[in-house]
Amino acid sequence: MTSARIRVGFLGPLGTFTEQALKTQPDLAAAEHVLYRTMPDVLDAVESGEVDLGFVAIENSIEGMVNLTQDELAFAHDLLIQREVVLDIEHCLMAKPGTTLADVKAVLSIPVASAQCHTYLRTHVGQAELRAANSTAEAARIVADDLGPGTAAVAPRTSAELYGLEILAADIADHPGNQTRFVVVAKEGIPAPTGHDCTALVIYQRADEPGSLISILQEFAARRINLSNLLSRPTKDGGLGDYCFVVYAHGHVADELMADAMRALHAKQGKVKFLGSYPATGEHATSARQHADARWRDADDWVQRLRGTVG
Hints:
Distance between the termini: 52 Å
Low-confidence stretches: none
Number of helices: 11
Structural class: alpha/beta
Number of domains: 3
């Protein structure tokens, strides 16, 4: 399938951080783009076959995991992560030309963006009402088209250019180095290992009892598999205290050590959902795993030699 025929769905309208991140990938930038109002809508479209790929935010360096996306992938859809993309985020406060900070009575954005700028907003427009929008770019569009004076949006710099707004303050996030991780998802297919990969799993506890989390972590620790993220999420099926664990681990299902860990977890815990093995961004951190891989192969050769003498 050529890039010209691939349809990629992502969160609209135009001007979102999602669009910026997508356009850093040459093949995705050249594909046909289909915009949706919400992230679940994007994932629904991938699962139904309306689009070939979905592009959604899954983690922010300030606010942590985007729980809506994570839960949709864990519980509501059977999709596989194909790659991840990390984008540096600059939030700007913008309004119609002529508006000053003193004029701002309401601020629109998605809740996660407002939360990332909480200190600035409280300090400089503390009396303003915070209103939720489906995306940062939608907030900018609504301020530009639908609302009167005294409203502002927290949105990307490109949204100000796109919708004719004036930037009142730039780079207003509470912490420096604000980054968001996005993932590309598809109905099927596991990318080939690159040597710098990540595997995502949802692991359900067979029983909620002391030591259940340790027993899960031991499978990774024993094989020197590093975890880049571990979070617990309510399973949605039970009451309070009924949780599963979402794990992002360094390695690929094609690696013997990762496959062995997954095998053990499936046997021990009973239910493990595979969310994908895919190329990871960032610095390579494989030296410990390479040594563990070599030791595992030596041990496997030893066992195979012993088994070869049976009978």
